[in-house]
Fold this sequence. Notes:
Bound molecules: NADP nicotinamide-adenine-dinucleotide phosphate, L-homoserine
Oligomer: single chain
Strand content: 25-35%
Number of strands: 18
Amino acid sequence: MGKRESVGVALLGAGTVGAGVAQTLADRADALARYGGRPLRLVGVLVRDTAKPRAGLQQDVRLTSDPTALPAADDVDIVIEAMGGEQPALSCIQSALRAGKHVVTANKLVMALHGPELIALAAERGVTLAFEASVGGGIPTIGPLVRDLAGNRITAVNAVINGTTNYMLTRMAREAASYEDALAEAQRNGYAEPDPTDDVDGKDAAYKLAILSTLAFRCTVREPDVYREGIRGLDAADFEYARELGYVIKLLATSRLRDGAVQARVHPAFLPERHPLAKVDGVYNAVELEGDLVGWTMLQGPGAGASPTTSAIVGDVLAIVRASATGSALSGYPDVRERVSILPVTDLETKYYLRLRAYDKPGVMAQITGVLGEMGVSLASIIQKEVPEDAGTPAEVVIITHKARESAVQEAVRKLEALAVVYGAPKLVRIEDGSA
Length: 436
Ligand code: NAP
Ligand code: HSE
């Protein structure tokens, strides 16, 4: 970083997150200058639409829609990338690093697909690429993994790391809100991605789990390595059954390192009410880590929104400015380019919730339990709700299994769906009660 009196900052993106950052740089200018040792000066902002009014920007800030204008500009020392998407964000980050600029990004997609190479590029250029805001909003997750817990061998990550879906699931379970209303509220609150299908289909959580797993296990885990299911298939009845059975439904992101191989998955899960992640509600997120020295630890806080994300970004900026005062880049991002074997979800062994609709005729239950028995899936409990005898409507059957192998359970579901007495596709949700 140059020896100018102030630190030149370029902000790529001035939406929910970028506007929060710009506002904080303006509102807290004196306090940030005192902490960093030099004032931070916002020199340029990249947006798509330069005609849109932008509150809080000084007159002399260059507003541009040209993605090449700011990353390598002479008066820029730190580039903050808060635009999202793969391109042009990736090219902007690469140009900035190649030009010797430090980069702070909130972009989990870019970090989940290109993180290891970008970390290596930053190291090669002697600059910092910091990305605390890419996972868990305001919760410090990256810093603890690469610094405070660096002496551990981390073997497991369990997390609720999407604020939008956690907010939606909480509203749907507690207040019987509809899926559509809950999503619209999350969007109004600034939690959702520009394309909210990334949230509800589990992609955002998969990006974040790839980043956490890469840093935790010190090897490359990319988003396509993460098995993924979203929350669209859940309905009011699933929340009622979960409650009746003593569970809470969460979009769980979980990864394990066993014998040099990683299994990583994101999907809805039934968690016992007493499970620490079951108590993480609304926009809150939490990350549980298991390390050989620390044992079990959990990091928790607001997982999305302008202010928490600004907190993470400004923290990264200040750490870079303070490190540069001693002439160094911020240390602590390990080389994580080594590849690792990825285990398929079919290797999983856990308990399952199966919900299906079957015509209420003699012998039906025997057929259902027969299929499960044939596949070696043993049953812990069955609930069948009574329907009027003459209604001709299918009865709802809910089955909780003992621990079983996912490959066998999936095959059983295919066979159940093929039975003439079963109506529609059975629904399957994994139960994670810590016994797997
Ligand atoms: P957003 O509200 O949609 O803002 C995106 C900003 O980037 C807008 O100012 C947009 O310009 C600009 N932009 C996007 N594509 C551009 C392009 N091709 N050229 C020029 N400008 C472009 O998104 P956001 O919620 O702030 O999220 C930004 C990033 O932060 C994403 O990577 C997201 O995953 C991450 N993040 C978000 C949150 C959160 O709670 N929202 C939390 C953590 C991380 P216009 O204003 O002209 O449209
Ligand atoms: N859309 C993301 C979420 C933003 O809801 O968690 C924070 O990364």
